[in-house]
Amino acid sequence: MPHREIPLSRPDITDSEVNLVVETLRSGRLSIGPMQERFEKQVAARTGCRHAVACSSGTAGLHMILRGLNIGPGDEVVTTPFSFIASSNCILFVGATPVFVDICPKSLNMDPRLIERAITPRTKAILAVEVFGNPTWMDAYAQIAAKHELPLIEDSCEALGTTYKGRQCGAFGRAGVFGFYPNKQITTGEGGMIVTDDQALADACRSMRSQGRGTAPPVPEGGRHDPSTVGAWLRHERLGYNYRMHEVSAAMGVGQMRRLDEIVRKRQRVANLYMTRLMASKPLILPSIDPETVMSWFVFVVRLAAGYTAEERNRIIAGLRNHDVGAGDYFPCIHLQPFYQREFGFRPGQFPIAESVSHRTIALPFHSNLTEREVDAVCQTLDVMISRENLQRA
After folding, report:
1. Residues belonging to the active site
2. Model-level pTM?
3. Phi-psi region of 257 (alpha: psi -120 to 50; beta: other; left: phi over 0)
4. Which of 133, 195, 250, 307 has CB 3.0 to 4.6 Å from 35, enough for a Cys bridge?
5. Three-class DSSP category at 14
6. 238 in helix, strand or coil?
């Protein structure tokens, strides 16, 4: 086998998606067309939600949901400090304040016991993230939100295809959002999807994604203009954005959704290979999955046992990369990002569990078509790098 790099991630694209993209390019309809509608219907059907709204990214979806729920300056949103920064930035986009709570050390999601303590009269929503696609506690968050009459916003950007207690991720809250960046379960290159049962919220998001226009459907190709709609394209009912998903991305999404079950099975196979190969490694803590969860697996993130430092973890990651094994540090805590420290005065020690976990995580190469031989190579290299670090500690 010739030497080659094992990348951290790689999209799973087949001729099916390529053919749909070519078909779309040849159609001449590259925006606000039938592919977007087909993709939306597929995702809505999969999640069991009444509405799906395609958009340019998961970040855009979260932003529009917060706007659609009339959350703004002076309001607070309870969320996690252990996530990709977009989940918190979206709260800042609308002028509200993120209120962080520490995480559960097993699921890496917010500790539900801490959420109620963080709720104040200014709290207007709970934004819960399924970290690494793990939905543990999502039902508990929904109960807390209902008790306090708050909307639950479900950041499912890493969880498409995962079920928890028989329910599809994305369907636990007032609205959920999926992301389709190239390292996700399915990809559209860039893109996102809002899912909700709330008609008014869906309509508001459809309007906002297209510069605040009304939600009347566009004139079909070859159709005739209804005189009553003349000028509607340039009539803007609210502040909006250019958050549309173009037809080429939607075509990729249609093809990927057709293959979602296949892709999930492939990712489960790779995760099981890692679990089997690494379960005896004492220096490592493997992902902890609730028995009532069926994971679709976004990434495979391990963490070093307590006692290892961030510097040691970083040297291990550097060693993996030097041996052509992709690796990353998912996630640095949001509250310790330079911008958040500078603007809000956050300091180390405020969320000790999230910080401890963050210092010890290692994301290993993970994608649908990773081979058993490649998994073995990754694990062997990881073993060597940890052993080398342990020798330096002695």
Report:
1. 184
2. 0.95
3. alpha
4. 250
5. coil
6. coil
Structural domain for 334, as ranges: 260-393
Contacts of 327 (CB under 8 A, 6+ apart): 8, 316, 317, 320, 321, 362, 363, 364, 365
* Contact yes or no for 284/313 (Cβ under 8 A): no
Q: Does residue 244 fall inside a structural domain?
A: yes
- The CATH number given to whatever domain includes residue 312 is 3.90.1150.10
Count of C-beta atoms within a 10 Å radius of residue 244: 20
Tell me how far apart the alpha carbons of residues 340 and 131 are, in angstroms, rounded to a whole number: 20
Smallest Cα–Cα separation from 65: which of 98, 90, 101?
Answer: 90
Alpha carbon 384 to chain centroid, angstroms:
31
pLDDT tens figures, 141-167? 999 999 999 999 999 999 999 999 999
Structural domains counted in the chain: 2
Whole-number Å distance between alpha carbons of 225 and 214: 16
Low pLDDT (below 70) residues in the chain = 1-3, 216-231, 394
Q: By C-alpha distance, which of 126, 125, 132, 92 is closest to 111?
A: 126
